[in-house]
């Protein structure tokens, strides 16, 4: 299901308008099952079980990977990646990253801050392999507003590299020396920690260790955290499959039928299917829009459908 801002086609309805209540997304049915989504500034990347990649939304920087800098209000397969089995994807503000099963990484979109990792500041409208990692095995990519993180596999520490804008400390590199870099740099402060998951959003970054520790770096309201800071984290999840939203609601992205902000969690009504029969598996949030992924059984085969809000 989908909801929220849709003026760039990021809701995949074929219409360039906002949706204030959850809507069933039917445009993906022709592509089969979807197991993972990543929502960026105004574009979305979807991944199928077989490693096929679909993109839609704003494409004016080439972030959709279709070989042109054009937006799309309907999901389209990224043809340049069809010869690879993609295992992980990430949508940044105006750029995208894709990791293959063989450990290669490909990027496209806005490169004006070096966030594509190709050693220059050029944009790309089709996915291009990041040659720096050609002799390494990439496991994950995380794309923020103007920077990217990469997690490697095959070493004891699971090293993290960053590239792109680093002026707020989001790369874990001294802001006095590096404002931006177009070549990957190792993220200092995480070299002796076994990192298992990474995240990038806006001008900050996060990393999760195998021991359950969360490390934060980058911009906050009071300045830049150049060195990774260990953080305590508490998350409450509903055990009955309900979805709760709160915060900024200007575009209807909270799915409550209005455009009001909410200071406290509110339950979202998902009336398309009974939640007990078709439980929510994941929720994805972009900039002013959201998607809900729901699991259901049909003909004894488990499938997943997407709802947008």
TrEMBL record:
Presence of the UniProt keyword Repeat in the record: yes
Sample GO molecular function, one term: kinase activity
Keywords: Kinase, Repeat, Transferase
Pfam families xrefs: RCC1, WD40_RLD
Keyword Repeat among UniProt keywords: yes
UniProt cross-references to SUPFAM superfamilies, sorted A to Z: RCC1/BLIP-II
RCC repeat spans: 1-50, 51-102, 103-154, 158-211, 241-296
Domain called RCC1-like: residue spans: 3-229
Name under which the protein is recorded: Serine/threonine-protein kinase Nek8
Organism of this sequence: Sesamum latifolium
């Amino acid at each position: 299901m989908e909801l929220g801002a849709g003026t760039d086609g990021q809701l995949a309805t074929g219409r360039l308008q906002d949706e204030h209540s959850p809507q069933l997304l039917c445009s993906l049915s022709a592509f089969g099952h979807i197991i993972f989504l990543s929502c960026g500034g105004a574009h979305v990347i979807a991944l199928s079980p077989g490693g096929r990649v679909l993109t839609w939304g704003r494409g004016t920087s080439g972030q959709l990977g279709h070989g042109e800098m054009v937006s799309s209000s309907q999901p389209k397969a990224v043809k340049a990646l069809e010869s690879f089995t993609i295992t992980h994807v990430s949508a940044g503000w105006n750029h995208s990253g894709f990791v293959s099963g063989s450990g290669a990484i490909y990027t496209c979109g806005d490169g004006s801050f070096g966030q594509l990792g190709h050693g220059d500041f050029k944009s790309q409208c089709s996915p291009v392999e990041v040659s720096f990692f050609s002799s390494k095995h990439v496991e994950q990519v995380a794309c923020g507003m103007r920077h990217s993180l990469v997690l490697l596999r095959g070493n004891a520490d699971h090293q993290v590299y960053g590239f792109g804008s680093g002026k707020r400390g989001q790369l874990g590199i001294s802001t006095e020396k590096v404002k931006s870099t177009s070549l990957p740099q190792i993220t200092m402060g995480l070299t002796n920690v076994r990192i298992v998951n990474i995240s990038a959003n806006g001008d900050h970054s996060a990393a999760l260790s195998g021991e359950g520790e969360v490390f934060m770096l980058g911009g906050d309201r009071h300045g830049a955290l150049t060195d990774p800071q260990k953080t305590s984290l508490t998350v409450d999840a509903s055990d009955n499959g309900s979805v709760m939203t709160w915060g900024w609601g200007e575009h209807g992205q909270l799915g409550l039928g209005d455009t009001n902000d909410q200071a406290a969690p509110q339950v979202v009504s998902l009336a398309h299917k009974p939640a007990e029969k078709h439980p929510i598996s994941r929720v994805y949030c972009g900039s002013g829009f959201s998607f809900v992924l729901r699991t259901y059984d049909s003909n004894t085969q488990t499938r997943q459908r997407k709802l947008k809000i």
